[in-house]
Amino acid sequence: MKNIKTIALIYALSTYCSACYGDIFKINRIGPEILEADPEVLKNLSYDPPGQDLLSHEQNREAWQTFVKTYETPVRKVQDWYNSITDKESADAAADSFNKDVLPILKKLTGSSAEMKKQVLDIPASPEMQKFILLRILQLQSRLLVIFSPMQEERQMHSNTCYCGSKLLFETILGLTAPSSRAISQFLGSRSETEEDMKATFQEPWGTEPP
Predict the structure, then answer these.
(1) pLDDT tens digits, 93-102
(2) How buried is residue 125: exposed, middle or buried, by Cβ count under 10 Å (0-12/13-18/19+)?
(3) Which pick of 84, 88, 106, 141 has the fewest CB atoms within 10 Å?
(4) Could you tell me if residue 45 is inside a domain?
């Protein structure tokens, strides 16, 4: 998978942030060797919520609720959308629901880590909570990577592929003139950045501590 390097970078960044900011950034029991062997593990991965040290501030609690509503819940819906594709009928239905269930969050998560940071800075919270949310957003991007990168690399729509013989889904993901296909390509292209770029995003400036 072409984007496995980006996924590995996100894991490396998680480790980096754990060293800098504590174990709040640790992914649940997932090591780099597991990611390399089976990157699709990220499709259904769960993450530890913020610690009580962060959630003790009301502003941070509200920020976390905003993150869950704006980012995490929509990505879960994308995972459900992908997992629902089991045969041609469900693949046709997935194609029909793409614009409603997938496209909005795909567009919102299209961008570099620096662009995602701009979104996070609009969420009032302490610097540590903002960093926590940014890392979670990068991890959510990795979930979308392991869904859509293989789908765009698959060039057959046979029943034994991810398209389950659905011409509708095939054209939704790979159609040359389909807006959905362009949106996926833009998302995948936006995730091509170096580990140094990602780490630099976590440097100052950030917000201010809540009272």
Answers:
(1) 999 999 999 9
(2) buried
(3) 84
(4) yes
